[in-house]
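Input record, target 12 of the design panel.
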């Protein structure tokens, strides 16, 4: 074997070894503790599902470990990751699907060191599409640069065939999205103990945020082109952003501070502009002062 091929082989072996070390040390697996299993089993509360998979016995015995993903370092000069990453992040829970399967639910965190105020973002997509790295990524990076810890989540979609009562698939998907959002909120509270936690959602994510926000414990909801599906809103302070003639989700007044946009249109991009300022500026101002433009 020539010297060139010998050193090429050595380099390849070193690469394989390095990749193996990243997989071993870059993530850690651990079964839920007996205490967390006892707590989650005794309290039938979906917000505690992040502690375990639906297979409680296997997790408590340590035979079905919960996998936690180590957060990737952020490269953005102000905060947040420079480009969307479809992998990595954290697994915040395991959600049941029809037929007995489960789905690992993931989230990404921007600006984790500034976790006094946390924004939990719920993406849109009609409950059939979308992901935590959707078209609002640039706006989320901007919110992180404004001093928030930003958590963007995936949740079960209609195509996942989420488990639930035998209703139509859309209703099951909405219910699953709300449950998963509450699970993510519990994960955030357990990890960061934030002084304030806000829900921000767009379109289907706004519907989810409004319904999840009816549960006490949130400090505010920003609903971009959303609606309340069950007729109850709750008492959480809310900012509603909606087009007057939205063709996708009909505008219906909420008990909320309102930015009503004239004409047709559906939702807004967080990185877009309104009255000469980014939407992230208006959302930040409302969260801190309660003022609207």
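The sequence produced for target 12 reads:
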């Amino acid at each position: 074997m020539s010297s060139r091929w010998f050193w090429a082989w050595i380099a390849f072996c070193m690469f394989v070894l390095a990749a193996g070390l990243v997989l071993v040390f870059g993530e850690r697996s651990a079964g839920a503790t007996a205490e967390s299993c006892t707590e989650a089993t005794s309290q039938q509360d979906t917000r505690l599902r992040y502690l375990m998979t639906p297979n409680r016995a296997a997790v408590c015995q340590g035979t079905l470990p919960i996998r936690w993903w180590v957060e990737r370092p952020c490269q953005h000069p102000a905060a947040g990751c420079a480009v969307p990453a479809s992998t990595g992040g954290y697994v915040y829970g395991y959600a049941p699907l029809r037929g007995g399967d489960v789905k690992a639910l993931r989230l990404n965190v921007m600006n984790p060191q500034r976790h006094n105020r946390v924004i939990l973002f719920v993406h849109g997509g009609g409950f059939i599409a979308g992901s935590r790295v959707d078209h609002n990524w640039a706006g989320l990076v901007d919110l992180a640069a404004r001093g928030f810890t930003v958590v963007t989540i995936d949740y079960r979609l209609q195509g996942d065939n989420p488990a639930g009562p035998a209703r139509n698939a859309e209703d099951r998907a909405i219910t699953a999205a709300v449950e998963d959002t509450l699970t993510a909120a519990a994960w955030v509270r357990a990890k960061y103990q934030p002084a304030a936690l806000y829900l921000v959602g767009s379109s289907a994510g706004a519907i989810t945020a409004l319904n999840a926000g009816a549960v006490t414990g949130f400090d505010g909801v920003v609903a971009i082109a959303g609606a309340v599906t069950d007729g109850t809103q709750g008492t959480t302070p809310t900012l509603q952003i909606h087009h007057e003639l939205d063709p996708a989700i009909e505008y219906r007044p909420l008990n909320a501070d309102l930015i009503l946009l004239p004409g047709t249109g559906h939702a807004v991009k967080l990185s877009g502009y309104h009255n000469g300022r980014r939407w992230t500026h208006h959302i930040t101002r409302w969260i801190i002062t309660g003022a609207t433009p």
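The domain at 82-289 is CATH 3.40.50.1820 (Rossmann fold).
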